[in-house]
Structures are given as structure tokens and as C-alpha cells.
Amino acid sequence: MTQPLIQMQNVDKFFGSFQALKNINLEVHKGERIVVCGPSGSGKSTMIRCINRLEKHNSGKILIGGRELTDSEKDIDAVRREVGMVFQSFNLFPHMTVLRNLMLAPQLVRKNNKSKAKEIAMKYLERVKIPDQANKYPSQLSGGQQQRVAIARALCMSPEILLFDEPTSALDPEMINEVLEVMEDLANEGMTMICVTHEMGFARSVADRVIFMDLGEIVEEASPQEFFENPKNERTKLFLSQILSH
Amino acid sequence: MSFDITLILDSLPKMLSGIGLTFQLLILSGVLGLLLAFVLLLMRLTEKWYFSVPAQVFIYVFRGTPILVQIFIIYYGLPQFEAIRESIFWPILREPFGCAILALTLNTGAYVSEILRGAVLAVDRGLLEAGSALGLSRNQRFIYITSPLAIRLGIPPYSNDVISLLKSTALASTITIFDMMGIARTIVAETYAPYEIFISLAIIYMIFTFFIQKGFGYFENFMSRHVKK
Ligand SMILES: Nc1ncnc2c1ncn2[C@@H]1O[C@H](COP(=O)(O)OP(=O)(O)O)[C@@H](O)[C@H]1O
Ligand SMILES: [Mg+2]
Q1: What is the distance in A from the centroid of ligand 1 to the CA of A20?
Q2: Is the minimum CB–CB distance between B136 and chain A shorter than 8 Å?
Q3: Rounded to the nearest 5 degrees, what angle is found at the Cα of A72, between the Cα atoms of A70 and A73?
């Protein structure tokens, strides 16, 4: 098999004296779709935020596409160009129209000219099925539309990897599906993705692997089928019984 | 006590002839103060102590002392130093106007830099993380994300500072500057009618304050256009 796109080796992360990640080992290959779940505070966000260096790990190694994440700004920039991220709270730039939100990074980071950046932006707005909202401000869109814009914004950089941090948790129930559909499309097109989510239907239908975290550790890692039907760890069982009873 | 209307009508044009100086004081020290505030802000935002500590000390000193004391120190105090008298700043510091501008600039610069810093720190961190995740550099994030949002957040407190600055310009009259306040004081000295003169003057300042507030109100609406509808 080829070299993994993401390698985390014995990664620890501390916030002060509190250990948020304990000896994390994870490999993700190109085209793999990983779902991460676990109780609140278990370190899911921290783990994926280490992948694009929004958090700095304290020990162990993280390699993205073979490039190790260190303090080197150059390496961090290079990694961030290839890793897109979608946040729970969308984080669209409120003072820019949807179109400018999408054009910003292609222009500044990829150095595309304006018309090229606009072409890219429109292409991905069509992908997420809201080209008609291009000239609105984020506050004028529904939550579901905002999150789709945020996905399109990440896609405009043509990332190798997409990270999702509970992308549907802030949405009203009736808007969750429109976002999940976009994510499923991406998964089916072969995008490498790591999704922190509690949408178990999504995990079942698209994940190659489900990772369960608790107290900063990866407790269980299995195929969705195994994970849901035959969980090994007691903590996984407890978590599943809680989440599936809803 | 009677209220002498003709005296007011006579003095109004005289006081208004000082409007030019009042506005020169306001605008020159306002603009220079804003530049200074920006420099102080950048000094404070760096993680280098040799930039941030001097800025902090400067801000502490100028916010912690009365502006009238600052004006007097600059006007009466600085010329005692030979080094100042021989420096290239002497042509400015020799004139009361230069001293007033300097004092007002330093003072408003200290205040405004704190306003800017508050606004910068109030920008949603998640937006900056989104910028980082997209690969924007620190400077790009500051220019395209932090600044426009901080400007919007800083407008209301900043407009308050401009209004205080307008009122502080009246202190320049204590060092022989004939702005509106300076003229009003001479009229009072001649007519012994402080009541009429100072009330009219107060109304003039209030009218300007009104327009400054309105102006910033429009600016704020313009900068918040994305929040509307
Ligand atoms: N910036 C931070 N400073 C201090 N503690 C933090 C910080 N970020 C997260 N934590 C702590 O680390 C733990 C894991 O957080 P997080 O990764 O956000 O969990 P999850 O995403 O699984 O809910 C939590 O206990 C949280 O309180
Ligand atoms: Mg989280």
C-alpha cells in the first residue's frame, strides 16, 4: 500500500496540565472516509485540529502527505493548503458576500486572478446547490445554506483532505440532511475525509472506519458494521446505547 | 438675573471665528492620534516584550494623568531642556499650537489604541481559525478578517473618543490659543457675562457633538450592512 496521507504517531496534547490527547495513533490513506465519535470533551476536536495545526501537539509525530508538522511556518502553510476544514459554527466571514468568502483563499493563497477565483467559486457553489445565493451575506442564509457555503469555501482550495468538526450539530433538524447529502456526495467522489459527527446513519453509509474516542484516547477503531453491531469495548457499548436510544 | 440676548448675538460670530482653530486642533490631533494609536496597537499585539511593554507604559501614563497637566508639562516644561530647544522639533514645540496638538495627540492616541485593541480582541476567534485553515498568513488574516470586523466593533467607542477630543480642544485655550473657548474667555473677561457666553458656547459644542455622532452613526450602519436584512 502507498504511504498514508495522514499519520499520527504517539501524539500527546496538553492544555496546561490537562492531557487532552493520549498517545494517539492514526493512519488515513487517500480516499478513506473516517468517522470520529465519542462523548463531549473526549478530544475529537482537538485531534482533528492538530492535523491542520490549529492546535499544536506536544509530543509524537504528525505527518501529512509525508510532511512533518513542526514549528516551520512553511510546512504549516503547505499542509493548510492541502487540508480543508468545516466547523460546527460555519465560521463564514460575516462582512463578505458568499462569493467573496469563496474567492478569498484562492486569490490570496493560490494566487488566482479575480476571474479565475470567481469561476472556481461558482463551480463549487453549484456543487453545493446554491449558486443563486452568491451575492448574499452569510447572515441572510439559513444555517444549512451557510454550512454548505462553508463546505464550498473549503473545496475552492481543492484540498487533498477535508476535516469536518460536527458540521451538523449547530443546525436545525430539518437542515441536517441537506448538509449530509453534500458530504455523502463528496465521500462518493473519493474525497479523503475525517468527520467528527454523531450522525450514525451517515457513519453507516459512508464511513470506511469508525473511531471511538473517550478521555483523550482512541478506544476503538472498526468498520461501521463491526462498530455498530459488535462493539468490543465497554465504553463504546455504553456510548452507543446512549446515542442510539435518542 | 437677566439674560442679555443682544450680547449673545454679538458674541456668537466672534466665538464662531475660532471654529477654524478648534477644528484644526480636533482634526490634526485626531488623525495623528489615530496613527499613533495604530502604532501602539501593533506594538502591543506583537509578542515581543520590548515592543509591548513600552507601549503599555506609554498608554498607562497618558491615560492615568489629566490632559491639562500633560498640556502644561509640554508647554511650560519641555522648553527648559536645551536638547529640546536645539532639536528639529523646536519650531513646533515653540508654538502653543504645536504643544496643544502634541498633547492632544499623545492623549487620544493612548485612549484610541486601547479601543482598537479591545475591538481586535473581540473579533470571533473562530473566523481567524477559518482563515488559518484556508492557509491565510497572519498578515492576511489581520488585513482581510480582523481589521474590517474590528473597525466595525470599534466605531461606537471611537466616536465617544472623538467627542471627548472635541471637548478637550477647549483646554488649549489655557496656553494662549484662541479657539472658540479662548475667544469666549476673552469676551467674558471684557463683558463680565460668563453666563450668556459660556451657555452659548456650550450649545455650539453640543451641535458639533450631534453632527459627529450622526456621522459615526452613518459610518457604523455602512460598516454593518452585512448584518442587515
Ligand atoms: N483551548 C483549550 N484550553 C483548555 N482546554 C481545552 C481547550 N480546548 C479543549 N480543551 C479541553 O480538552 C478536552 C477535549 O476537548 P475537545 O477536543 O474540544 O473535545 P470534543 O471535541 O471531543 O468535545 C476537553 O476537556 C476540553 O475542555
Ligand atoms: Mg468538539
Answers
A1: 6
A2: yes
A3: 125
Nearest by CB to residue B133, choosing from A80, A108, A137, is A80
Q: Report how far ligand 1's centroid is from the alpha carbon of A41 (Å).
A: 6
**CB–CB of A139 and B133 under 8 A?**
no
Q: Under DSSP, is residue A86 helix (H, G, I), strand (E, B) or coil?
A: strand
Calculate mean pLDDT across residues A165-169. Answer: 97
Of A85, A93, A140, the CB nearest to B127: A93
What per-residue confidence (pLDDT) applies to A103? Answer: 98
Cβ proximity of A79 and A53 under 8 Å: yes
Q: Provide the pairing of β-strand A6-15 with A59-64.
A: antiparallel
Highest mean pLDDT among A231-235, A236-240, B28-32, B71-75: B28-32
Would you say A71 and A58 are in contact if contact means Cβ atoms under 8 Å apart? no
Q: Side chain identity at A1, as an amino acid letter?
A: M
> Phi/psi class of residue B87: alpha, beta or left (left: φ > 0; alpha: ψ in -120 to 50)?
beta
The interface predicted TM-score (ipTM) is 0.94
The continuous run of DSSP H or E covering A109 comes out as none
Q: What homologous superfamily does CATH list for B20-176?
A: MetI-like (1.10.3720.10)
Distance separating alpha carbons of residues A59 and A13, to the nearest angstrom: 7
**Average of per-residue pLDDT across A31-51:** 96
> In the structure, what pLDDT confidence band is assigned to residue B1 with cuts at 50, 70 and 90?
low
